[in-house]
């Protein structure tokens, strides 16, 4: 019954992210963020003061609503307002916030769980109000993105915002590009149907493949599995605290590496380096577990060096994710979608991410029982596959203004046959009319 509700709530999160697509398009990114924050706050209140189970369910639904709205609006908002030279670094603040949130929540949960009166869960759930208030305050003071203002016909306000954000009145060129992008966007009445057109194939493929692959790195499984491993290899009753401190700490800290490098070395290099690092760690962790635990799961006495080896490679794995697929899984989709399909494509991205987070969390324990250490090989295989995918299909987007992104597909060896340049299209029309 509870699991079924879990599914229902999850489905609800997804539904919301699809609705949030229209909200971001019609009411703007800022209002979507603000409503997300308010719903998250009310949800945290319901959970913290719950007297009956239904209150927990309603609270959880509201949190889902909040998450759907935030994931839909924050990455595209940042990519739209950031100067393109620092777009990567600024967008990655989103992932930094996720990792700090996970870290703080895990550490606090550990202590709240020890509260003698058994009311610790109220604090754990209620503290979700803190990020909610931060989003609400932030969204109240933030300007809406110029693209979103133009999209809603507020050109003059958009220009003023652009001048303010860029800190210079020399914005004519960029403003012209934004207006052009908005004009082609307004011509599109049905973004969902448009996204299915051949012309948008690269964006559609990326909106599905990137979040799918991000979850198939196995990051969430490694972090779920880490406390068990840590306990087994001798961290005793403090295993879950140690695990969340160590993996959570590395996850947040390593995100800074990508913040500082993504706009210099580019997205592709980070994806490929992170992939190689995760692959090697998965193989080493598999070998380490296989040699000591075998398939019966009975390790006998484990030496100290073994504990260091496993913990060490888990940390290197987490760092690999934290400077590649973690932040890039949100950055790249948010910067490659043209305005006319941006909200629709982002909601596909968010939904696919959530579906696979959910699916993997559901099947992980039974996979572990059946596959034993083979579970890590399963994810290692996907890491290899996704690295090949990036190598062949993802063009570099570093330093390309978001309104000019179509050029990267036109110049790409594979995607160019799907995406014709404007001049080619014009020629094709002339040819057809002759
Ligand atoms: C992913 C989450 C993951 C988190 C961990 C995010 O980018 O979407 O599934 O738990 O990173 O750092």
From TrEMBL:
GO cellular component: membrane
Transmembrane portions of the chain: 31-50, 57-78, 90-111, 123-142, 204-229, 241-262, 274-293, 305-323, 343-361, 373-394
Domain Major facilitator superfamily (MFS) profile: 1-398
Membrane topology: Multi-pass membrane protein
Gene3D superfamilies in alphabetical order: MFS general substrate transporter like domains
Claim: Ribonucleoprotein is one of the keywords in the record: no
Highest taxon above the source species: Eukaryota
Keyword RNA-binding assigned: no
Signal peptide: none
UniProt-recorded Gene Ontology molecular function terms: monosaccharide transmembrane transporter activity; symporter activity
Keywords in alphabetical order: Membrane, Sugar transport, Symport, Transmembrane, Transmembrane helix, Transport
Pfam families associated with the record: Sugar_tr (PF00083)
Compartment annotation: Membrane
UniProt similarity note: Belongs to the major facilitator superfamily. Sugar transporter (TC 2.A.1.1) family.
Record protein name field: Major facilitator superfamily (MFS) profile domain-containing protein
Species of provenance: Arachis hypogaea
Organism taxonomic ancestry: Eukaryota, Viridiplantae, Streptophyta, Embryophyta, Tracheophyta
